[in-house]
Design brief:
This protein is α/β, with parallel strands linked by helices. About 35% of the residues lie in helices and about 15% in strands.
Amino acid sequence: MYGTGFEARVIDPASLAFDIDGVVADTMRLFIDIAREDYAITHIAYNDITHYMLEDCLDISTAVIGEIIEKLLDGSRDEGLRPLRGAPEVLTRLESTFGPLCFVTARPTPEPIHQWMLKTLSVSASGVDITATGSFEAKADVLRERGRRYFVEDRLETCFDLERAGITPILFRQPWNRKAHPFIEVDSWQALEDLIAF
């Protein structure tokens, strides 16, 4: 059974932080676009991405997957990166009401996605705080240091790590996290907004 959540309007915005890829940025759709445009790979669809480790679910060589991911991470294709529906509106509202937004990503460097975030959200540079950990496992330490008790994440394995570290994960529903879990789950930014104590 999937986690269903809890009463609305209970999360203090000051205790909340966000992952970026698969939560704010529609990175997997850009992956599919790059595969089609640069490699003429036309046989994959969004719902085919049933595992976070793409080589475990897609009929694409590991080398090509690596090349596409490099293009995603270096910022060279960010013009095609779109936000998930509702993310800019909710995040802009949060920043204007409660101050800087906290993001923790497993990306190796924050610069390209920071620039994309500033273009995507109606916030100043000081309104977006991004920590790039370079690994999924390092997220919990950063969140504890920042005093964040809730984290919106799309990678199910990371949610289990966070829970063990005393942080409450909120799983953002995606095709690659459809396994049984005990966590709060949202399927849209509107559903997430309903949990926040504005």
